[in-house]
Write a structure and sequence with these properties.
Shape: globular
Oligomer: single chain
Structural class: mainly alpha
Distance between the termini: 20 Å
Number of strands: 2
Number of domains: 1
Number of helices: 9
Strand order of the largest sheet: 1-2
Helix content: 40-55%
Amino acid sequence: MTRDVGARPLLSELRIAFKAYREHARNERLTRAQLETPQIEKFRRLVNFANEHSPFYTELIARAHIDITTCTPGDFPVMTKGILMRNFDRLVTDHSINRQKIAQFLTRSDDPNEFLDGKYHVLHTSGTSGEVGYFIYSPEDWARGMAQSLGRRRRRQRLKRRRFGRIRVAFYGAVGGHFCRRVNGKQRKTRLRKVPDQLGIV
């Protein structure tokens, strides 16, 4: 199965999402110590990747004398939207992507299901804080984000409902584009409900 826009197979993304969902479910039963060990290992692999592929982090790690084999999140400065946007082209690890290319894509596309280069999910903030932020996700990273949404739905199902009525959720926001809330809300509605059928889960 493929999407109409982007022509990228959906099934592989759903499989990644379900695998991550099962991992989140297992993690809920771990102690803090059991959870922190694999987390820090994943973090250091991420740092190593950023050091090799992101000029911004290569420079930061060298300037701050950070040991990528023993580092922790506390060794790095907080990444704000302002820092992200000022250094966008030096931050990204796929050098076919740059800030101007994303701006042109967002100017042209108002369909949240359309992908940059046929594979990247692109979101942007509204700019009400004074600066628009761009956020781009690979298929794998997006699928893992979907899994987190599934986890939240799973936890909500455990909540005791009131005797009368159902839990209701409303959203008020901008539509017709790649706005963060618009894309998340629309794609969760159209894709997450299909996970059990696509993967043969009952």
